[in-house]
Design a protein that fits this description.
Vanadium-containing Chloroperoxidase, domain 1, globular, 2 strands, mainly alpha
């Protein structure tokens, strides 16, 4: 067992470098997507996502103030839920599950589980990189910054806070990574797709309840995470017998 753990440590060190290179290569494809989408059939779903996101942004000032009300936030059930679904706890879930599959698959010599964990880590990393970059660009104020009686119609480029993981809040990085991970598991283990997407949806909803994000942030983050995994990380290869696997 000790030998296996040592071997796992060495393999992880080597894999970390490979993972970083893959994420860097993925970013090029992700940022080039608007151009490639305009040249192919992908522009239709992309336009759909953009339209829904725009509609949600327009509606954000209407329903977000309700979640800011002290009467709502002070409810015991809401307070308990927000503590359980805190940003830190959700981040632990997002990263622990892929790591568990990676380490467990390696130790149990289950290459399929090991590779699933590796793909999920790649997807989560991709989601974080692009979300952080976008948040630094748009600098959208978080709902909790605006306050109960604040102006929710002027949130873009208005945040006064600065964090390394993103100055603004659009899109939700937690949601992007959660749906990126969920999509990998849903495609590798189709029987558990509902569980994977259900967990990702709960993580996304938690970001709204804790006043960290607007619904539009969460929706776009979910679409982003799914797209990253489905169209970039999961390079779908069909074998002669019709089996679909993840590529390279």
């Amino acid at each position: 067992m000790a030998g296996s753990v040592t071997l796992l440590g060495r393999a992880t060190a080597l894999t970390a470098g490979r993972l970083a290179r893959r994420i860097a290569a993925d970013q090029k494809r992700i940022w080039e997507f608007p151009v490639t989408a305009a040249r192919g059939p992908a522009w239709k779903p992309a336009l759909g996502v953009a339209s829904v996101t725009a509609a949600l942004i327009a509606l954000d000032p209407l329903y977000t103030p309700f979640l800011q009300r002290p009467g709502y936030q002070r409810r015991p059930a809401i307070r308990g839920m927000n503590r359980a679904l805190s940003a830190g706890n959700m981040a632990r879930v997002i990263w622990t599950v892929p790591l568990a599959f990676y380490c467990g698959g390696f130790l149990l010599r289950n290459s399929y589980a090991w590779r699933t964990g590796l793909l999920a880590l790649e997807a989560a990393g991709d989601g974080q990189v692009i979300a952080i970059a976008m948040k630094h660009i748009d600098r959208r104020m978080r709902p909790i910054e605006v306050g109960c009686d604040g102006d929710f119609t002027h949130t873009w480029f208005g945040t006064k806070t600065f964090k390394l993981d993103g100055a603004g809040c659009f899109p939700s990085g937690h949601t992007a990574s959660a749906f990126a991970v969920a999509t990998v598991f849903a495609e590798r283990y189709p029987k558990f797709a509902r569980v994977a997407y259900g967990a990702a949806g709960l993580i996304g909803a938690s970001r709204i309840s804790t006043r960290a994000h607007f619904p539009s942030d969460v929706f776009f983050g979910a679409a982003l995470g799914y797209s990253i995994s489905h169209f970039v990380v999961m390079e779908r290869v069909v074998t002669p017998d019709g089996h679909v696997t993840a590529g390279g």
